[in-house]
């Protein structure tokens, strides 16, 4: 109806602009931008392209090693140049030292990559690793850690972020011969409540010594979980190695010469239960210094580090910034999924505290930024109230339509908005369709909903807080604005179009038509050209409406004075499967020249 009314009045309506055109920002060359030497967790898009976009959006340039040096290969896939499935520890160590010799003074370093060859291999490595450097010297993983940190600490001008993780409850399926049955058994074993350590018991030695003890102090029998003793031994050895390396890292940075080092530890796939991670988390948290942090999420670690580095270097004071938080759906006091370790509300509060901003109730009128969060629907409450399925469906629709109404209100008031979809697929693709139809997607400061729920909070807040701070303190250029547009478009398109539409079709194609495994196109080997063609054709169709929405959107280009610019064209190309699996995709994003602010009639924006 809205479109029909609009068609009738369009010919005679005077289209009013939504903001003044900001002067095109002056450009600067890459050589003028501060450089961050970055060793990624692995080669997935969340750890590579999207980190590049975020860094460039706040004025940094990332220097990175060659992709083969940090790539992960699943079983049956071609090995890396070092002959393994994981990253090249020796080459990465020497690469970091080469950046230091060249005068770099900013670093973001994944310890899982530098000491284990990537996140996946860190879960499977039960013994200390030894590598050979180009000059013939051999070094253990611990010696690599000690040598690297000592070299970087020798320059007092260096700012170093060390990114690490708490090992998840079970290793990765499809790597090192590890299968789904072993995964299920080990995850159940790891999730079983453990004896809680506290006080003088909270040491690395005590934590690892009690790995086998249940909450009552009795030994957990591996056989009760469908495991052999050797399987349990290998699993616990990998956990022990990981914790001991983290412990050594924290011991090293406690020295006075490491004052400019920051440690950021993420909690990988977890559980709300008193699992094997509980004592590890408590111990690591007890070792953190002022400025360090341990938060939910691992694949968003680099986002958080980029944002926090910018906030600190720009002198931005988040204490003066108020964030209004509103939840829709009713389950904010539960974990967003089965793989997070705390209720969603607590995860949000921890991240807001990490970025140093204050929290208000949403919609108060006093907030500088509004954070809107769609949670999973409260199905238990619906059923307890005796609601029919039709009534439950109405409640679910009300949750996301109310959110969209609030989003429209804040947009009209020119209040920046961060949007998180933590619905975990419980709304199908109805929420995304409604947003595309009714909202101005390109106006958002940031959006997250793609991939694991444990990372959506850190992803959205990293991007949104960084963008807001840059609008206040940063030097806008065409490059920073275009990089911001890429960060937002990447999040929206991958969630709305790939996750909720194209991926479902691909999963059916791979399983039913090609007889393959969506988690690894090589085992069994399938016709990857067919899968690629389905991906490209599906995305061409699924992205049309979303791209059109973005291209008709405005974005905030200045806060004081308040100004907006219009999005340019959005061109997508080079769709790819980084790990030859259907879980995630990569793609290239080109943003065309920005325009005068697009005009609005009845809340719909036009070029």
Model description:
This protein is α/β, with parallel strands linked by helices and 607 residues long. It has helices at residues 2-9, 49-57, 89-101, 111-116, 119-124, 141-153, 180-191, 204-209, 229-253, 277-287, 301-314, 344-354, 379-384, 389-412, 430-438, 456-473, 478-513, 528-542, 544-551; strands at residues 35-39, 61-63, 106-110, 130-132, 138-140, 159-166, 261-267, 293-296, 322-328, 358-361, 369-374, 417-421, 446-448, 554-558, 563-566, 570-576, 586-591, 599-601, 604-606. A 6-stranded parallel β-sheet has the order 2-1-3-6-7-8, sandwiched between helices. The chain has a 5-stranded parallel β-sheet with strand order 10-9-11-12-13, with helices on both faces. Strands 4-5 form a two-stranded antiparallel sheet. Helix 15 (430-438) links the parallel strand 12 (417-421) and strand 13 (446-448). Helix 2 (49-57) runs parallel beside helix 11. Residues 1-22 have low confidence and may be disordered.
């Amino acid at each position: 109806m809205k479109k029909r009314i609009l068609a009738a009045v369009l010919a005679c309506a005077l289209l009013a602009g939504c903001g003044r055109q900001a002067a095109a920002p002056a450009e600067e060359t890459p050589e003028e931008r501060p450089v961050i030497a970055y060793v990624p967790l692995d080669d997935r898009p969340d750890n590579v392209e999207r980190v590049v976009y975020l860094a460039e959006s706040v004025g940094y340039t990332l220097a990175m090693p060659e992709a083969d040096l940090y790539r992960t290969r699943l079983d049956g896939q071609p090995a890396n140049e070092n002959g393994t499935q994981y990253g090249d520890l020796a080459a990465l160590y020497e690469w970091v030292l080469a950046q230091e010799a060249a005068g770099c003074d900013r670093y973001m370093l994944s310890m899982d990559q530098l000491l284990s060859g990537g996140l996946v291999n860190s879960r499977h490595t039960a013994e200390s690793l030894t590598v050979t450097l180009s000059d013939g010297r051999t070094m253990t993983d611990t010696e690599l850690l000690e040598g690297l940190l000592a070299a970087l600490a020798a320059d007092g001008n260096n700012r170093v972020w060390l990114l690490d993780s708490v090992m998840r409850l079970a290793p990765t399926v499809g790597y090192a011969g590890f299968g789904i049955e072993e995964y299920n058994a080990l995850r159940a074993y790891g999730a079983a409540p453990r004896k809680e350590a506290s006080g003088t018991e909270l040491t690395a030695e005590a934590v690892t010594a009690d790995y086998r003890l249940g909450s009552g102090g009795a030994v957990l029998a591996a056989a009760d979980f469908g495991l052999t003793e050797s399987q349990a031994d290998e699993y616990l050895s990998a956990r022990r190695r990981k914790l001991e390396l983290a412990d050594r890292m924290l011991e090293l940075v406690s020295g006075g010469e490491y004052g400019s080092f920051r440690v950021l530890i993420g909690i990988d796939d977890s559980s709300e239960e008193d699992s094997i991670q509980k004592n590890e988390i408590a111990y690591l948290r007890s070792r953190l210094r002022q400025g360090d942090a341990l938060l939910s999420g691992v694949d968003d670690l680099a986002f958080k580090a980029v944002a926090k580095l910018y906030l600190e270097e720009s002198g931005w004071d988040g204490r003066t910034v108020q964030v209004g938080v509103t939840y829709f759906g009713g389950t904010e006091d539960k974990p967003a999924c089965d793989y997070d370790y705390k209720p969603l509300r607590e995860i949000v509060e921890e991240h807001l505290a990490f970025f140093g901003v204050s929290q208000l109730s949403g919609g108060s009128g006093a907030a500088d930024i509004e954070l809107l969060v769609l949670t999973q629907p409260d199905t238990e409450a619906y059923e307890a109230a005796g609601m029919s399925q039709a009534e439950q469906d109405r409640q679910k629709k009300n949750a996301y339509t109310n959110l969209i109404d609030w989003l429209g209100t804040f947009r009209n008031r020119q209040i920046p908005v961060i949007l998180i979809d933590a619905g975990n697929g419980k709304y199908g693709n109805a929420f995304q369709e409604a947003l595309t139809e009714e909202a101005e997607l390109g106006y958002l400061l940031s959006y997250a909903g793609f991939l694991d729920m444990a990372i959506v909070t850190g992803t959205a807040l990293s991007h949104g807080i960084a963008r807001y701070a840059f609008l206040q303190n940063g030097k806008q250029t065409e490059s920073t604005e275009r990089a911001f547009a890429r960060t937002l478009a990447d999040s929206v398109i991958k969630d709305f179009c790939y996750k909720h539409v194209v991926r479902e079709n691909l999963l059916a194609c791979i399983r039913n038509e090609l007889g393959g495994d969506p988690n690894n196109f090589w085992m069994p080997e399938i016709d990857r050209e067919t899968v690629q063609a389905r991906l490209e054709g599906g995305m061409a169709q699924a992205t049309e409406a979303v791209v059109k929405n973005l291209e008709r959107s405005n974005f905030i280009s200045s806060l004081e004075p308040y100004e907006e610019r219009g999005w340019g064209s959005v061109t997508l190309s080079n769709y790819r499967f980084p790990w030859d699996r259907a879980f995630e995709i990569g793609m290239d994003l080109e943003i065309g020249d920005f325009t005068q602010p697009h005009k609005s009639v009845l809340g719909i924006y036009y070029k």
